[in-house]
Write a structure and sequence with these properties.
The structure is a homodimer of 336-residue chains. Chain A is an alpha+beta fold. Chain A folds into two domains: 113 residues, 60s Ribosomal Protein L30, Chain: A (2-Layer Sandwich); 158 residues, Phosphoribosyl-aminoimidazole Synthetase, Chain A, domain 2 (Alpha-Beta Complex), CATH 3.90.650.10. In chain A, 27% of the residues lie in helices and 25% in strands. Chain A has eight helices and 14 strands. In chain A, the strands form three sheets. A seven-stranded mixed beta sheet of chain A has the order 9-11-8-12-10-13-14, sandwiched between helices. In chain A, strands 1-2-7-5-6 form a five-stranded mixed beta sheet, covered by helices on one side. A two-stranded antiparallel ribbon of chain A has the order 3-4. In chain A, helix 2 runs parallel beside helix 3. At the A-B interface, helix 1, strand 1, strand 2, strand 5 and helix 3 of A face helix 1, strand 1, strand 2, strand 5 and helix 3 of B.
Chain lengths: 336, 336
């Protein structure tokens, strides 16, 4: 497939086009060992130990949706990128690009929302910047957050995924993507779906005693669970087999997916954790997750297998096995 | 003056409107001791010592201008925000918001430019994110960088400005603002003006032995030298008197300012340092600055005085004294 010469919406999807852009442009050019692993946060050596450092731009449309808004999302997303590498968040920054003519009250509302989410996660917002562009140059408000976290180099998740390892998700999937879609399109739905947008650092803390036996964690945002799991095994000599019946999906998300022909595996989450751990600690990890309100519906959804290296497969409810590939582009643009 | 209910371009100018937005919205809401000093970088306590953390969004128009482009600017600007608090830059992040339909080659060009500037400053770009928005939702490319630096808490600039302290600038002022203006408006000029866009961490290193006697440093970007100096003395019981004849202005900038009625004191710089230091180290500080190519034209441009508390005044070339106030809005929008 010849590479596109222009940027498409799919380059922001988190799918294959995004990966190509990252690989062919950013990784190639910025080439350095801290960036290369493409983790949710980079690990940086500093005098007193290891730091985690991450950034994300937010362009979600609409700015406000059931369960959150761009401000809450920007804080939670960056806190989560720190948490999933095992870091304790220390500080956040916030850069806003605002369109001329939008109401200052809306900026204040998003700022209050950021502060509430940051206070909830126990992280201060210590640095910021604001730029204003002309009416025709931006939708309204874009927010970019960066985050700084402290890592205990002696106790953080990591290590190759092995045959028999368990795949665990912290709860029902696809709520964020669905909630944004419903809000954007003004769909009338009988069971309202609310974004799961939440800071996961508290939930991750419950897992700290088991970090040594957790291979990898992620918050499956753009591209959903399917994309995160594909990235887990991308260059691995094992693959993952998921059991469809074990994957928690709420009735509301299930109904909308059926109606619109969407696959919840690819829908964004903003308050869920997916991880692969040693099968020997499954009970402890599940117990820890379920001890926290954000992990109440945690479930084992599959296992690693050497039978399908670098692949993610799904045992369907009717007993078939299908490949869960990465999408080239996304089902929904601008969900975060 | 009643506060505007909507965002104006002036809210992004770095002038009085920006200060109001920061004070009334961001500071009020994000209230915390690391943000409150409104320094170029926040200081964050970590296990091994003090860290500097900063962010800036870049929306400059045009994307490429004489002497630089948005990529170089985004790297240099963030490195400079770290450097002026006395931090050694450790790592940068880069979040891009890209418009659907722009050429990937342009994204690559900006990425290469970021990498060249980062390599030049000796700082790796370790984390990134890319979002794509529809054709009508963004001008082309916005870049937000964040930066992480190491601070030696025992040796960094700081302390109240005192009567008799010297004001020093590292070279000619107003080049960046002028270069962007000329490029944007397609002005025909006889002496071309090139942006001074440069990373200042090397220049700042020459000053490290004198940090203890430097009260404050800044890279005077949006709002120019006048705004930076007003911020220096905003709540001080001393003021600053500048000597117009001592302020270095290149012929090219001087000519364009005269032609268009602009004041170089308010034009943005992206590779200049302005500082206030103890009068007893003026010789050493000037010598250190001049030992570095970026400080070759460093000059003492004024002094602190208890005669005009919290004010910045200018002794004009013809012997008058005028107030150099902060502008409410800016001469030029979107210069960074």
């Amino acid at each position: 497939m010849p590479r596109s010469k222009t940027i498409e919406l799919g380059h922001g999807s988190g799918g294959v086009l995004t990966r190509e852009l990252i690989r062919d442009v950013f990784l190639k050019t910025f080439d350095n060992p801290a960036l290369a692993p493409l983790m949710d946060s980079a690990l940086v050596e500093a005098a007193g130990g290891e730091l985690a450092f991450t950034t994300d731009a937010y362009v979600v449309k609409p700015l406000v949706f059931p369960g959150g808004d761009i401000g809450k999302l920007a804080v939670c997303g960056t806190v989560n990128d720190l948490a999933v590498v095992g870091a304790r968040p220390l500080a956040l920054s916030c850069a806003m690009i605002v369109r001329e003519g939008i109401e200052i009250e809306l900026v204040e509302q998003m700022t209050r929302s950021m502060q509430a989410a940051a206070a909830d996660a126990g992280v201060p917002i210590v640095a910021g910047d604001t730029k204003v562009v002309e009416r025709t140059s931006c939708d309204g408000l874009f927010v970019t957050t960066a985050g700084l976290g402290a890592v205990d180099a002696a106790n953080r998740p990591g290590g190759a995924i092995r045959d028999g390892d368990a795949v665990i998700v912290s709860g029902t999937i696809g709520e964020h993507g669905t909630a944004v879609l419903v809000a954007r399109e003004g769909l009338k739905v009988t069971s309202p779906v609310v974004s799961d947008c939440a800071a996961l650092n508290g939930l991750v803390e419950t897992l700290r005693p088991f970090f040594g036996r957790i291979r990898i964690m992620r918050d499956p945002t753009r591209g959903g669970l399917a994309t995160a799991l594909n990235e887990f095994v991308e260059q691995s000599d094992v693959g993952l087999v998921l059991r469809e019946a074990a994957i928690p999906v709420s009735d509301g998300v299930g109904a909308i997916c059926e109606l619109l022909g969407l696959d919840p595996l690819y829908l964004a989450n903003e308050g869920k954790l997916v991880l692969v751990c040693d099968a020997g600690v499954v009970g402890e990890v599940l117990g820890a997750l379920r001890s926290h309100p954000l992990g109440a519906r945690a479930a084992v959804i599959g296992a690693a297998t050497s039978k399908y290296p670098a692949k993610v497969c799904l045992e369907t409810a009717v007993g078939g096995l299908r490949l869960v590939d990465m999408l080239v582009t996304d089902q929904l643009p601008r969900i975060c």
